[in-house]
Design a protein that fits this description.
This protein is mainly beta. About 0% of the residues lie in helices and about 45% in strands.
């Protein structure tokens, strides 16, 4: 099984401990809200691709030689954001 980590910057974070606000009813404990991206009135986007393979692994520790292990990974993706209703509602994929 492979572990994959997604790096996403946090722009804003809000922590409510034991909120008694009627707009946040229905739970006990704490609520955490995180904003990863905020909307803009312009369409923006980007794409990324990241790869690595066994050629980037070391093969020797001191006098000990290691066997080569297949370790190829490829990660790719995209993001797209823009306005739905100007200055009010935005989308982010």
């Amino acid at each position: 099984m492979r572990n994959q980590f997604l790096w996403m910057p946090i722009e804003q974070i809000s922590v409510n401990i034991a909120p008694f606000d009627v707009t946040q009813s229905g739970f006990t404990g704490a609520g955490i809200n995180a904003v990863t991206r905020s909307g803009t009135n312009t369409f923006t986007g980007s794409a990324y691709y990241f790869t690595k393979n066994q050629d980037l692994q070391g093969r020797k520790i001191g006098d000990n030689k290691l066997e080569s292990v297949e370790a190829a990974t490829r990660n790719f993706g995209f993001r797209l954001g823009g306005p739905i209703i100007k200055n009010k509602l935005f989308f982010f994929l």
